[in-house]
Amino acid sequence: MPIAESQPWDTIIVGTGAGGGTLAARLVEAGQRVCVLEAGGDPRLEKESGTVPRLPDDYDVPGFHAFACENEAMAWNFQVRHYADEARQARDPKYSAARQGVLYPRAAGLGGCTAHNAMIFMRPHDSDWDHIANLTGDASWRAHRMQRYFARLEACQHRPIWRALQRLGLDPSGHGWHGWLHTERSVPPEALEDAQLVDMLARTARNFTHGLPTPLRSLLRWLRVRGDPNARPWGRGSFEGLCYTPMSTANHSRIGARERLLQVREKHPDRLHIELHALATRVLFNAEGAACGVEYRKGARLYRAHPAPSAAAGDTRQVQAKPDGGEVILCGGAFNTPQLLMLSGIGSAAALQAHGIPLRVDLPGVGRNLQDRYEVALTHRMRQPWQGLKEARFTRGDPVWQRWKNARSGMYAASGALLGLIEKSSPDQPEPDIFCMALPARFEGYAPGFSELIRQHSDSLTWAILKAHTANRAGTVTLRSADPLDPPLVNFRYFEEGSDVAGTDLQAVVQAIRAVRRLTAPFLASGLIAEECLPGPRLQSDAELAAYVRNTAWGHHASCSCPMGPVAGGGVLGPDFRVHGTRGLRVVDASVFPRIPGFFIAAAVYMVGEKAADVILNS
């Protein structure tokens, strides 16, 4: 009999990403026996068997993360809509009528989306946690109490406290001064081996330092010390200004939920079982109405979001939770968790009836409230190719890869975000809501083959603009069919189709484009930047820039589709992560937030995983 089915488990967790992997590890360390179901495989193990030609480098190398997104070893290619109106949607160059959507990369593999993301690790804003506390009436969500979970996570070797303990001959890892998730600064700009790039970063930084350090070395040193957005003291407001992007890497190699799970399994092989190639299809309930297990299909590439799905249906299996207090916890993310709830009879009664699914709990909020950031690109052609990319082929063994492998330096040692700028779109914003980052690459959003643009263009500069704290709450995840192998229908309902009737999101992005243009104007005037490619100099008016944003915006932080909050307000979960109207069933992933937190969602989901462990162990 397979291990997963051999005996009941204390907890069954569906998904191994930032939420599920973090939660599983903590529960196992506390003594629970946990079975984790993962629809994908383990890229490392499959590499060793010779079936995946491009890994592990796509996984390990920060500069290869775009290629990891398109690697069939772990890709799930969702096709989403930004607009219901076909004519409106068709104006997006990323949209394919044949595929009926815009590519939205997700990862199916051990570690979930932490296996292919850009590794940017930034804590959310205090107001994100305080909002949950106010909405639910649960003071444990207050920002000052959530701080402990960030401390449990971040193992930041460049922080002064870490270095001070080492100078005293103490091991910070043995004194509770850090968590398990290594984070690092991006490599120093000097190590990128590109004088043109370093000069541009320094000249950009000088515009924001107001006469502080002016020599190049002092300026860059100042940025590395003062530009850590995670080091701000709590209670003193949110970080604003120039920053670098902290990365979840160890020695400039990816680290995430995969490594955490494998380390815990090595220590506790009798308590943690990871079932790979196990696609959850529905939650099982006992006669008393409590969640008692999960049905899943065993097999590789079963889900039809895979770029090359299998024609097989997979073997149907079941895993059981202990009858006395066992639990099922869904951690599949903003698309798959609401789909699994609906397949299990939990959702809008009318929607389930339309697909012939027996109703268990009428919970209309399931799959609603879907949110994301808005992102747009300003792309430029440089007068000369980047020196640091002159020998780059983005393949194992090229000279830039050799520098990463031997010295952890060069362009591949960074995920691409070399400099960030955090601002408020207007003075009355309670939190900074604009993040702009400079990338020495051409990136214009997600479409099949988008990673090849990076390989083909060594003379591009992209300023990516990200609008956080978006006002739109109108996105939906609905069932395509009752077949669990079919991915759901996803529509984010951008801009005028959404709930932001005042148009504040669109206006904020337009103003951010103007701000970035002010940054790049001196380099265009000097000829260092040869031309602005997108949106292009001919688009100047607010109306023209707004049309560019509507037609090209994208996102990759889908969240909030099973939010905490009261049922009457569209809530799906209580503050203890329990699904309303059920017993023994919780959700712990990016779908739990009432509104999208911070700038980059990974840190917030990791923190939710840590908090959920406390909630479950103390319940």
Concise overview:
This protein is of the alpha/beta class and 619 residues long. The strands form seven sheets. It has a six-stranded antiparallel β-sheet. The protein is globular.
Describe this structure in words.
With 619 residues, this protein is of the alpha/beta class. It folds into two domains: 3-118 and 255-342 and 559-617, FAD/NAD(P)-binding domain; 182-254 and 371-475 and 491-552, Cholesterol Oxidase, domain 2, CATH 3.30.410.40. Helices cover 30% and strands 18% of the residues. The strands form seven sheets. It has a six-stranded antiparallel β-sheet. Strands 9-2-1-13-23 form a five-stranded parallel β-sheet. It has a three-stranded antiparallel β-sheet with strand order 3-5-4, with no helix packed on it. Strand 14 (346-347), helix 14 and strand 15 (361-362) form a beta-alpha-beta unit. Helix 2 (18-29) runs parallel beside helix 12 (257-267), helix 10 (195-209) packs across helix 11 (216-226) and helix 17 (504-526) packs across helix 18 (542-552). The longest helix has 23 residues, at 504-526. Mean pLDDT is 90; it is low at 170-177.
Primary descriptors:
619 residues, Cholesterol Oxidase, domain 2, 2 domains, single chain, FAD/NAD(P)-binding domain
Q: What is the CATH third-level topology name of the largest domain?
A: FAD/NAD(P)-binding domain
- Evaluate the radius of gyration: 23 Å
Number of helices: 19
Report the portion of residues in β strands.
15-25%
Integer count of domains: 2
> N-to-C terminal Cα separation, in Å?
32 Å
- Average pLDDT across residues? 90
Helix content: 25-40%
Poorly predicted residue ranges: 170-177
General form = globular
SS elements, strand count: 23
The second-level CATH architecture of the largest domain is 3-Layer(bba) Sandwich
Structural class: alpha/beta
CATH top level assignment of the largest domain = Alpha Beta
List the strand order in the largest sheet.
Answer: 8-17-18-19-16-22
Name of the CATH homologous superfamily of the largest domain: FAD/NAD(P)-binding domain
Q: Major sheet, described briefly?
A: 6 strands, antiparallel
